[in-house]
Amino acid sequence: MKFSEWAENVPDEIVNDSLWRVEAYRLALFITDLSWKDVSRLRRDERTVSLADQLYRSLGSISANLAEGYSRGTGRDRARFYEYSLGSARESRDWYYKARHVLGEDVTRTRLDLIVKIIRLLLKMVPDQRGEKIKEIGSIYRSESQ
Q1: Looking at the predicted structure, is the pLDDT value of residue 137 above 70?
Q2: What is the Cα–Cα distance from 50 to 43, expressed in whole angstroms?
Q3: N or C: at which end does the chain have fewer Cβ atoms within 10 angstroms?
Q4: Long-range contacts formed by 98-106: CB under 8 A, 24+ apart
Q5: What pLDDT score was predicted for residue 1?
Q6: If DSSP states are collapsed to H, E and C, what string results for the chain?
Q7: What pLDDT does residue 136 have?
């Protein structure tokens, strides 16, 4: 499913909230919806049942922490929740990589590219809110769309 097709079906109660303007939030909701089929597929293989649960919870946590942080009154407080979201995005990337044996290379690559985009956005959002840079040690994120 394409993002534009998906976005047309998001309820007005979500779209009309100012949080919807946050690209990382929109993408996090999108990948969580995309993952529904992935998680269902992982649950059919007894070796990946717990992986499916971990993956879905970490993906859901990305947008949930963005939503909670967005509602906080200070930049430092928002940054803390955005950092939680960043941790969940990295955790999700890890789980998707581990799921590649069941999901296949194409699905895994597509999901990893989307998660990397979310990570990049969060790496910009956190210091913008905190007022200082995140100290990343030589991390370079690339996706196939570059």
Answers
A1: no
A2: 8
A3: C
A4: 98/51, 99/38, 99/42, 99/48, 99/51, 99/52, 99/55, 102/41, 102/42, 102/45, 102/48, 103/38, 103/41, 103/42
A5: 87
A6: CCHHHHHCCCCHHHHCCHHHHCHHHHHHHHHHHHHHHHHHHHHCCHHHHHHHHHHHHHHHHHHHHHHHHHCCCCHHHHHHHHHHHHHHHHHHHHHHHHCHHHHCHHHHHHHHHHHHHHHHHHHHHHHHHHCCCCCCCCCCCCCCCC
A7: 55
Reported as a pLDDT band with limits 50, 70 and 90, residue 22 is very high
Predicted structure pTM score: 0.87
